[in-house]
Amino acid sequence: MVVAAAILPELATQLVVPVAAAVGIAFAVLQWVLVSKVKVAPEPRGEGGSAAGGGAGAGAKDGASEYLIEEEEGLNDHNVVLKCAEIQTAISEGATSFLFTEYKYAGGFMTVFAVLIFVFLGSIEGFSTKSQPCHYSVGKTCKPALANAAFSTIAFVLGAVTSLVSGFLGMKIATYANARTTLEARKGVGKAFIVAFRSGAVMGFLLAASGLFVLYVAINLFGLYYGDDWEGLFEAITGYGLGGSSMALFGRVGGGIYTKAADVGADLVGKVERNIPEDDPRNPAVIADNVGDNVGDIAGMGSDLFGSYAESSCAALVVASISSFGINREFTPMMYPLLISSVGIIACLITTLFATDFFEVKEVDQIEPALKKQLIISTAVMTVGIALVSWLGLPYTFTIFNFGAQKTVHSWQLFLCVAVGLWAGLVIGFITEYYTSNAYSPVQDVADSCRTGAATNVIFGLALGYKSVIIPIFAIAFSIFLSFSLAAMYGVAVAALGMLSTIATGLAIDAYGPISDNAGGIAEMAGMSHRIRERTDALDAAGNTTAAIGKGFAIGSAALVSLALFGAFVSRAGITTVDVLTPNVFIGLLVGAMLPYWFSAMTMKSVGSAALKMVEEVRRQFNTIPGLMEGTAKPDYATCVKISTDASIKEMIPPGALVMLTPLIVGTFFGVETLSGVLAGALVSGVQIAISASNTGGAWDNAKKYIEAGASEHAKSLGPKGSDCHKAAVIGDTIGDPLKDTSGPSLNILIKLMAVESLVFAPFFATYGGILFKYL
């Protein structure tokens, strides 16, 4: 079939992608420079206004008057500034220390798994250096299996290192910005919002741009060896997604266990038993709790979304390489997934300016709408961007590989695939917000249920989580049906990429939450006024909801990504149909559906065990350190930090091993049919549990904050802090912590990581897999 060429020439494509990545990195650096103008050091009297206000535009632009500044601590209160700097340093050092320890273990795993990839894939042709017949292009020869093994290993290491660096840089940016957000809160909520949001944008753009740039460079460098063998080239590139997600698993699980062990210990003893405020400096677990926000919610989340981006790109590239794009060596259409990501960076840059420059947050009730507008604006701008890329970057008619056949597709159909993924992400985001924000009735009902104690709170929270699954699943199902109908598995892959195309904005909003949370903790520990804490609490409450929205995006995209990877795996393994009526497939389906429960049990138990040690240590300090409750003695923060670190490092290994070893064991011993059943079962089961766990935990957290804020007559009737109703809400929040920040977010990594690992090892499984069934 003769197809027309794309309008955009190859040279232009070779320029657009790196330029977009460079623009993203430059914009991230600019935001960092603006944030750094807020000084975490005492200024000489009379100069504080210009120094502290530089990060967000000096003066009283947001309506904060000099009278208000002087009325509170004052910009020249040296003790407050020094205290903030001291706390910031303690949090940053704790987070850095933990991540270095975690990365030592992750680095050891990376080395071992890289060797496994090379040995397994190299052994397919007996480590031969001779060219082999191509798997898809009949009659042609491709590069040897040994070369694919070597380049898959290199791609794996590249993805793993990029994921680790992304997480680490995100953590450093967040710990750099937290105290600056606190100090700006003295001048008004608008100033603090801009610092927190700019800091989130640094992480978002840095991660999106670096992920795109490394993938682009890897494709071009690998291409120097592979030449016209695009089938082998893009099969090797899938190692990039595997590396990204495997490191994300350790980041999410290890960081999640760390942060929730500290959080549960701090809340149960501090709030429930001792009746002291959140982030009170007398609480021995308070530094560990704030460190946890950065290693779990920032570093773990950054690695997670980077993994999703890498895998969706790899899934699309693999399918494209065996479609007309790859067969006819059409570079621009082949790079369509990277062009989408490039335009996404520009669309997110325009969107960010709406929050930081075009419109200004002046009041507390403007914070959440400003963040929601980011989602809407980025989606609208990106829709136009996708239309442009589809028009310029694709021929009008082409063919897409569809399980052994070539399906004729038009460029407008591919536009619809990407757009449906993009808009489905927005739907999932807003449904998540409805079920987790205390502005709506579901969370208010959960808060009201606290009148009769913790038990009814737990029942209402669980019911809310289960109910919140319904519409997101319909949105995902519709996306899959439409995109597969239009463009087979390639359509599903680019729909996932569409959902992730606004990753820079999504990450900025997501990272904003933990930064604001830390800012509130620093304000409390530094002894700043109640009004400052109210402002940081308002920032944090909006951040809680946006974090839940971010998790919704991550889970939704993971479902689409893993299905696309599943399709690529089935094609590469030579499976024509996955028949659930055959026993080999059905037993895999049952086992796969069980895996998310086994994984969740491991992570929940790990948090529980670590929290138990933390509670005992916090109680011990309160009981044995004289003057601790009176505030005349300092707690031993370091011991609590060590408990969280040791527990998370020890406990992250079994869940990680479960996820990484399952595809290898099933594929080798039971074969590709059983493995296809395992992947399908884990996908169907894992998505439901992940959404309900994340939303249940988010709802319990915001129900507690609803009671604490007392912003309405209904909320006031449930409070104040320390009441039986509030204590019941704290218990619900404590139960929800590991659900929303450990098990739930980690499950989306489970479903996509098993799928991408199966795809990378598919040639080995197809050749040697099913040892047990061969002899039965």
TrEMBL record:
Organismal lineage: Eukaryota, Viridiplantae, Streptophyta, Embryophyta, Tracheophyta
Species: Aegilops tauschii subsp. strangulata (Goatgrass)
Keyword annotations of the record: Ion transport, Magnesium, Membrane, Translocase, Transmembrane, Transmembrane helix, Transport
TM region(s), chain numbering: 15-35, 105-124, 144-171, 192-219, 334-355, 375-394, 414-432, 469-497, 553-575, 581-599, 749-773
The EC number(s) this enzyme carries: 7.1.3.1
Main localization category: membrane
UniProt-recorded Gene Ontology molecular function terms: diphosphate hydrolysis-driven proton transmembrane transporter activity; inorganic diphosphate phosphatase activity
Membrane topology: Multi-pass membrane protein
UniProt protein name: H(+)-exporting diphosphatase
InterPro entries in the cross-refs: PPase-energised_H-pump
GO CC annotation, single: endomembrane system
Subcellular location as annotated: Endomembrane system
Lineage: superkingdom: Eukaryota
